[in-house]
Amino acid sequence: MATPKGAIGNGPVVRVAIGGDHDAGPELLRAARDATEDVRVVAVGPTGADSLAPLVLATQNGTTAFVPQCTVANVTTIVETLENGSLPDTAATVEHDPGATSMPTPPAAIDTTAVLGVGSRRVLGGCGWRAPASVADYRVSRDDELLAERAIDDPDAVHERVADAALRGRGRGDGSTDAPISGVWTTATETDGKPVVVVNANEADDHARADRLLLESAPLAVLDAALATAHAVDATDVLVYTNDAEALARERAQEAADALAADRDPDIPIQVVAGPDAYTAGEMTMALEAMEGNDRLEARRRPPGPDQYGLYGRPTVIHTPRTFAQVGQALADNDLGGVPGDPGTRLFTVAGDVDAPATIELPTDATLADVRGAVALDGGLKTACVGGRFGGLTRDLDVPASAAGLRGARLGTNGVIELFDESTCTVALAGQRAKLAREENCGRCVPCREGSKQLVELLRDVYDGEYQDGMLRELARTMRETSTCEFGQEASRPVTTAMESFEPEFRAHADGRCPSGSCDHVSS
Amino acid sequence: MSTDQSSTPRVPDVENPQPTMPLTEDIRPGTANDPPVETVEPDRTATLTVDGESVTVSAESTLLDATEETDTDDYVPALCSYDEHDEIGPRSECRTCMVETEEHGVVPSCSFPAQDGMTVRTDTTEASEARDVNLDLLLSNHNLRCTTCGKNGRCELQDVSIENDVVEPRYGVFDDRDAYEPLDDSSPFIQIDRNKCILCNRCVEACNDVQVEGVLRIEGSGEDTRIGFQNDAETMMDSTCVSCGHCATVCPTGALVEQGLTDAATIPLPGFTQENSIGKTVEAENDRFQPGPATPMKGDQKSESAAEPTAESPPTEDD
Ligand code: SF4
Ligand code: SF4
Ligand code: SF4
Ligand code: FES
């Protein structure tokens, strides 16, 4: 299979971003290709900034013009202008090295494209810039050497580098979320049986979209790192696991896998498989259950974890695409930056009461407050829910973007920051999350299945005039400490953090009043 | 009710080193492929400290085994654990057996492997709170009508509740006639009262792993999780049950009771029985002639699979 056309190199090129939540991309691509035979028109992946989509970039001689919210008419003009040897006249034009392998970001001051200048763009560098499945583009960005090639020659060096860097796993569904990943690599290598490497991209929370972004936009960076990992732990298979609904991510991952196999000897096969679009399907052991073809998803008992007993009982290294992207950075000998305890960067998707969600990248020594520049929030910020569906509620974004910083502030680390304005009632918000836990849990263990029911009941009691904070805390503690998997362990976090930061609101509800005026069921 | 996730893939080209007996290949119990318990090297023993006392246990032991070897400071219920048959459990779902370890914090003792050098305490506030709350959570979803229950006096849930001094469960008990699941009284051999089920999975494992009959399964998720049948039947009579009774034998509660015993241990209150205790009962649709212990469905399944009837297969109405 031929490797797709690359976007990097000399000569004028038009990049059309396809993917994310907008479906106008393919139409623009067709229009652009119809309008020219001379100018290279390349489909790239999304940038993560939804407010810019559909985004088209025109590049010539080391200058790139950004055209956000591009229309068919615009794209035709862009192509024609480029054919005539000049660049379209747009608000954001950036000069860069003609061979740049990462997207040159417009300075933060330039109007709508400012979101691209928030934080850093290291693992996101290829997103929207390189052709997703072009090995040629990817090779250029790696000085022509695939990480997997180097790993074949010296697998131990891969493991050593990752261990020395003390890289931590990122996101939900990772075999070592917030913990150093080299531990599970060692265990998997030392356990009897042939190891498997799983790229777990199944995430049904639409706000936690960084993994999908990486697979749609820079799948080679993920797969190359996964292959290098496979060599390091002597695995025989690499599996990419996505949601059933995420057709584009799967298609791009498959194209990238095929392109990699065509480029080099496919000694370790990469298979792309889909699992259910259920929130639980992203939990690491339920991911394995889904891949084994179990008829009902249920979390596995642990210990031992997947590193010892994973897919079909084989030792399994399971990480999210976000983690593999960091592994790639470490192996490319980049200075990872960030704090030493949690080096590298973290991806955050900013969502909630905002004009359009944006996925941005922050070094772990930055603070979450930086994300405010990435989105436009209507009204003042009242509450942020940090860490996904079962994240922590806070008013204060002055929190380090590292695992330790987020945990210390009792927030979640699943890379989502939902911003809510003054009209949001935190009691109701916590209640919605508790209800979600009650509805979506796998049904296996008592603290989660029955605990989430009682959590909802105790919150109902608040509306009926009784705020039993001791009971709520005791229940939350038991769910957190005794549930089998992260679902139950985290399910009560929105409630406990809301009780900590917004306690007067709970008391007000018990007195029959909703301070934000959004709950009309408060009995008086 | 069944929430089969039909899009679930089975990874096509990955080697599965786990042995599958041809007989069990088609069994779909709806439960996870759990890891085995033992992680210690075989033929080794582990010495650990439980409540200050040193105990030595064999390699495949759990912390529960270790606590049972000692006179613990606190009562550790371990409700869902079953140690009479290797094929059954540990399911480790009730979480009433939590103990505190120096190394790993609060853990479920019934399934946590006993590792050499561990320090375990049964009497810390965290561990006993966790045990108490989880036991009360179980009771919150239980139709606690012991006086009309066939397991009264030989019920493990009742035993641990008494032993744990439960006087009034903090979340109350399940007592909402509208939300009760009807009693399945369709089979002449086994009665199912799902309002008493604690989802310990014992019956499923007894049926699938010991009897290899593949009748029972766990289905649904969240609050809809329940015991169901692999042939998607709604009632026991329409399942492929052979009435071996193993499920009822292992059931720790009054959820599965042999028909002959449903009223055996009830306290005689005039007009108040297990059968009318929740109001709704499902009987067999028509009183089909059932000469043997296998349901008509089992008979259909046998004739469909075209195997010639064997000497021990019971006659069915189709024959
Ligand atoms: S914590 Fe919840 S989702 Fe996880 S195993 Fe227990 S019941 Fe299932
Ligand atoms: S199963 Fe029966 S005997 Fe056991 S606690 Fe429940 S009602 Fe009582
Ligand atoms: S019916 Fe009995 S054995 Fe089966 S899961 Fe329920 S309580 Fe356990
Ligand atoms: S006995 Fe340990 S979880 Fe039920």
Automatic annotation (TrEMBL), chain A:
Keyword hit for Iron-sulfur: yes
InterPro entries referenced in this protein's UniProt entry, alphabetically: Nuo51_FMN-bd, Nuo51_FMN-bd_sf, Nuop51_4Fe4S-bd, Nuop51_4Fe4S-bd_sf
Residues in NADH-ubiquinone oxidoreductase 51kDa subunit iron-sulphur binding domain copies: 427-472
Listed SUPFAM superfamilies: Nqo1 FMN-binding domain-like (SSF142019), Nqo1C-terminal domain-like (SSF140490)
Transmembrane helix as UniProt keyword: no
GO molecular function: 4 iron, 4 sulfur cluster binding; metal ion binding
Pfam families in the record: Complex1_51K (PF01512), NADH_4Fe-4S (PF10589)
UniProt keyword list: 4Fe-4S, Iron, Iron-sulfur, Metal-binding
Protein family: Belongs to the complex I 51 kDa subunit family.
Name this polypeptide is given: Respiratory-chain NADH dehydrogenase domain 51 kDa subunit
